[in-house]
Amino acid sequence: MDSNIYCLVDAGGHVYVRDGAVSHSEVAARFGLDPQLCDTYRFDLTARRLLVDRGRPASDRAAVAYWDQHVGSPERLMAFAGEGHLTKQILGGLLDADDARAYLEACAVIERRYTADCGASDDRCLESGCAVEGEICLEPLVRAGRDYQQACAAAWRILFEDPQHRTPAWRH
Fold first, then answer.
1. Per-residue pLDDT for 134 more than 90?
2. Among 45, 113, 120, 172, which one has the highest count of C-beta atoms within 10 angstroms of its own C-beta?
3. Residue 15 in contact with residue 7, Cβ under 8 Å?
4. Collapsed DSSP state (helix, strand, coil) of residue 48
């Protein structure tokens, strides 16, 4: 699982991040940037460290300030996650193994609720009704987008608030 958050810093020191991006190119495309003209960074959430792919001192300071503001402490990370910026897989990776399983089970309950609500609505994926009976359907989760990620983040926060449930990098 990739727990990196990709970011670019332009010549003016502005930091660009795109939720869910898996490359610097995705971030650049979202903002219409040329990645070759920007400094490139990744923030590894699991290890809780900034990785410099290509940078200069001024850009390094801008990236460090950005990540400190957004995820510089467990409290800031919980707020960032609560806004729906992180996937359930990334959040699960920040918990110890037993707690990650409990968290993923809580997300499955949320996913079944979204699936059931979709099947009971007038705005179903298929005219004939729900394609999956008793299973989790991806379509209502995709439609819910950030709301779904916020719901999973709320379930994650219950565990993550207690340092004993966190991975070692986030215990302090």
1. no
2. 45
3. yes
4. coil
| Alpha-carbon span 71 to 63, nearest angstrom | 12
Phi and psi, residue 128, nearest 5°: -80, -5
The answer to whether 125 and 139 are in contact (CB under 8 A) is: yes
**Structure-token pair, residue 139:** 């379509």
Environment class of residue 54 by beta-carbon count within 10 Å: exposed (0-12), middle (13-18) or buried (19+)?
A: middle
Dist CA 102 CA 92 (whole Å):
9
Domain boundaries, the chain: 4-72, 88-170
pTM over cut 0.85 = yes
Residue range 68-123, pLDDT digits in tens: 999 999 999 999 999 999 999 999 999 999 999 999 999 999 999 988 888 777 76
CA–CA distance, 143 with 74 (Å, rounded to integer): 29
CA distance 8 to 25: 9
Q: Provide the token pair at 44.
A: 């590894």
Is residue 166 helix, strand or coil?
strand
- Is 75 within 8 Å of 81 (Cβ atoms)? no
For the record, the structure tokens of 67 come out as 């990540």
Q: What are phi and psi of 39, to 5 degrees?
A: -85, 145
